[in-house]
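step 3/5: co-fold with aspartic acid
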Amino acid sequence: MSDSYSRREFLGAASGLTAGVALGPGVLAARSAPAIHIRPAAMNVVVASANGLRGVQRAGELLDQGMDTLDAAIEGVKIQELDPDDMSVGYGGLPNEEGIVQLDSSCMHGPTRRAGAVASLEGIKTPSVVAKYVLLYTDHVLLVGPGAKRFALSYGFQEEDLLTDRAREAWLRWRARRGPDDNWLEVPDDEQLSREEHGTININAVNASGDVSSVTTTSGLSWKIPGRVGDSPIIGAGQYTDNDVGAAGSTGRGEACIKACGAFLTVEFMRRGMGPSDAALETMRRVVSTTEARLLDERGRPRFGLNFYAVNKKGEFGGASMFAGARYAAWDGTEAKHHDAAYLFERER
Ligand code: ASP
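step 4/5: write tokens
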């Protein structure tokens, strides 16, 4: 706000915003941010991280049956949350350094402009649904740790042991191999188990009326310091929706995404008129520019991976990754399939 932007002018702007809400999204967009002129999507479109192929299919079919965009997106991510073989999300997710599974999720509902999230949630298989309950039933946006769990239990969610035998074995192997000077004897590595260190699912959905929603859910970084939270439960980082523009979300190194407000920034780039893939790529450039030197290689490339997925109100969708070779999943109105993501850097040979 410039010095000459007086309190009276500020209140005037704020009341214009309120009028915008009352008069409809088009007016709000014109008054509150650079306007882009877009028509609502002509069909139902869903875009997700690569592990969301079944999720986009499910969400797309539910949108076709008339389900709300957030409800459909959550039904999509629940497939991964409930799948014990997905070791990056929900039940079966890899635990923290103490062997405890801590889950994070956030969501936004475009039409009502509401948001909800949970972080470091233990013992509940479907954090995305708990995040939706925060959105629906509280005046808050984010609940964490034991408070988030008690909130879930009060709504009848069942407390369960989320650590599967496979995830426990992976954790025990990691603990035994952690360092040569600790008191745990070394065990042989199991590449199959040690390969998967992190992952997440993000789903963004737009229906034929142009209503948009997004959800992200994860078990976060494996072997994390207890209480560590990445981008997934942070509104504007792990996912973001603006019903005037579209939605975006991310997977990969959460710390990098948080610093760039990745999902929010991608939506803002779309607001200025960029297509979803270009917007995601532009956010990736911002991430690189905000990366500290210790995380860059000798050629200035990040030593970590990051991905963004985006859809606009017209139903155009796309994705971008830090490195070549990544894919994302999308339901384009008729079928679910993988697409190649745009990228900033070729992979090192
Ligand atoms: N973004 C997640 C986090 O930082 C992890 C991931 O997607 O790999 O918690």
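step 5/5: annotate
Residues 1-32 have pLDDT under 50 and may be disordered.
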